[in-house]
Amino acid sequence: MASVTATVSAENGDAGLSPRAAVIDTDARRAHRLGALLGDGGIGTGVEASNADVLVLGCDRLGRGERETVARLREKAPEAALVVVVGRPGPRSARDALAAGADALVLSDQAGECLEPAVRAVLSGQVALPRSFGDGFRRPALSRREKQVLGLVVIGLQNIEIAAQLHVTESTVKSHLTSSFAKLGVRTRSEATALILDPEGGLGLGVLAISTAGEGEAGGG
Description:
Structural class: alpha/beta
Helix content: 40-55%
Radius of gyration: 22 Å
CATH topology of the largest domain: Rossmann fold
CATH architecture of the largest domain: 3-Layer(aba) Sandwich
CATH class of the largest domain: Alpha Beta
Strand order of the largest sheet: 1-2-3-4-5
Distance between the termini: 43 Å
């Protein structure tokens, strides 16, 4: 994501006020809206990122490029508070935003009510997240069989091999993968494996169950 700093002069904002915010966005309309919301909340805008007390990054989604932008902003302004406003969040958006260096995540469609309180919270040393994202920090509630199937995926087995190993049908394996992928917030085997094995923010092998002996579930699942 090639970020640019949009210098926004909100109608009700005053750059002389404290705190001061810099809105960083590639979308000029969204940048203006965020600046206006900050100004309405008594937060000064129209300052450069290097002089801001808080950086507000607007983005459509929190993909790899956006996470890299968050990390760069954090490196360049380690003392500033950093709030991410995202339009299309994913299941791991909150976790990814904080891991990259953000202090808060605000959903774009809730920015009118939540942006200014989130900024105030992070400036006072708190972390601010939508309540609905609390589950993103809990381990997914996988069934015993889902853990087994994922464990065999992680070590490289294909569906037909997993079915033979667990004494179930291949369609049963696919069903378990579909449900476990939904719980993990991923779409592919490679994404699931990366999520589990990521040394920094992954779920870890403790989420799996590799052993298949003595399950007594032949033909079931």
